[in-house]
Amino acid sequence: MTATVAGDTRVSVGSGTPVALRVRDLTVALGGRRVLDGVRLEATEGELVGLVGPNGAGKTTLLRAVLGLVPSSGRIGIAGQDVSQDRARTRRARATRSIGYVPQRHEFAWDFPVTVEEAVLTGRVARIGWLRGARAEDYRQVRRALDRVEMTHLRRRPVGELSGGQRQRVLVARALALDPRILLLDEPFTGLDVPTQEHLTTLFRELASEDRAVVMTNHDLVGAVHASDRLFLLNRTVVASGTPAELGGPEPWMRAFGVSAGSPLLAAIGRVAEGRSGNGSAGAVDDGRDGGERA
Ligand SMILES: Nc1ncnc2c1ncn2[C@@H]1O[C@H](COP(=O)(O)OP(=O)(O)OP(=O)(O)O)[C@@H](O)[C@H]1O
């Protein structure tokens, strides 16, 4: 590992792949309680990173801290720029424009009387500003984003009339309207059926392969293990990280989720403790990926 966070130049890990997002020693206190403590995370361009942990582990808070929406201490590097909160606000504002944020679906006002196209256009407010009208370039980017998520045919439909899967696509398009280098997705699969989840997973993998870093929180551990290049197991701090193959044993999962060796959760993701599996396997899923680091 050769990278550093601070400075204006691109930083990279040993492989030479640019690090899009680097978080070090991130600590967040909310309501007088430390909800994140010394978090260390990174995502390189082209990588789909899974952020998993139990309810209340701090997954949403971590994404919000990266966006500067909650006060934090520690260091946050975005595309080589140190945007930690003690740095100039303008630098942070500029850098966070390279992040597309997809909040949980229930956080968007679906009752608001706007069309799909108008909802996606709101994703460009950071660039347009609230008081200036949208220009041709803004509409061009909106059309591009809608094409990307295959929602062009529904662009004039009121958002309140969309299905859950279509709404999720609108939120992704809204985040893509700024053509971000980093995409933060908060629980994009909640309430969606398996075919829709698989469709979206394919889209997220494609978006990552276009040299974006995609960081996704996910309660579906089976899906996270199969879709992610690298996983971060969070429970107030990063309990473990690595490729799914590197996290093949049950221990990090037991620690992160506070479950015992007999938990069905471990069986579901093929991380069964030695001696418990029917076929004698230690339970690692061979997903064919390699590389990564332990926290
Ligand atoms: N505004 C707030 N004030 C006080 N505590 C908060 C606030 N927001 C979140 N918390 C607390 O911070 C902790 C982490 O919450 P967070 O929503 O980040 O967890 P999460 O991992 O995303 O959970 P889930 O999987 O349930 O969505 C929780 O204990 C939560 O109660």
UniProtKB/TrEMBL annotation:
<dbReference type="InterPro" id="IPR027417">
    <property type="entry name" value="P-loop_NTPase"/>
</dbReference>
<dbReference type="InterPro" id="IPR017871">
    <property type="entry name" value="ABC_transporter-like_CS"/>
</dbReference>
<keyword id="KW-0813">Transport</keyword>
<dbReference type="InterPro" id="IPR003593">
    <property type="entry name" value="AAA+_ATPase"/>
</dbReference>
<feature type="domain" description="ABC transporter">
    <location>
        <begin position="21"/>
        <end position="261"/>
    </location>
</feature>
<keyword id="KW-0067">ATP-binding</keyword>
<keyword id="KW-0547">Nucleotide-binding</keyword>
<dbReference type="InterPro" id="IPR022508">
    <property type="entry name" value="ABC_trspt_anch-rpt_ATP-bd"/>
</dbReference>
<protein>
    <submittedName>
        <fullName>Anchored repeat-type ABC transporter ATP-binding subunit</fullName>
    </submittedName>
</protein>
<dbReference type="InterPro" id="IPR050153">
    <property type="entry name" value="Metal_Ion_Import_ABC"/>
</dbReference>
<dbReference type="InterPro" id="IPR003439">
    <property type="entry name" value="ABC_transporter-like_ATP-bd"/>
</dbReference>
<dbReference type="GO" id="GO:0005524">
    <property type="term" value="F:ATP binding"/>
</dbReference>
<feature type="compositionally biased region" description="Basic and acidic residues">
    <location>
        <begin position="286"/>
        <end position="295"/>
    </location>
</feature>
<feature type="region of interest" description="Disordered">
    <location>
        <begin position="276"/>
        <end position="295"/>
    </location>
</feature>
<dbReference type="Pfam" id="PF00005">
    <property type="entry name" value="ABC_tran"/>
</dbReference>
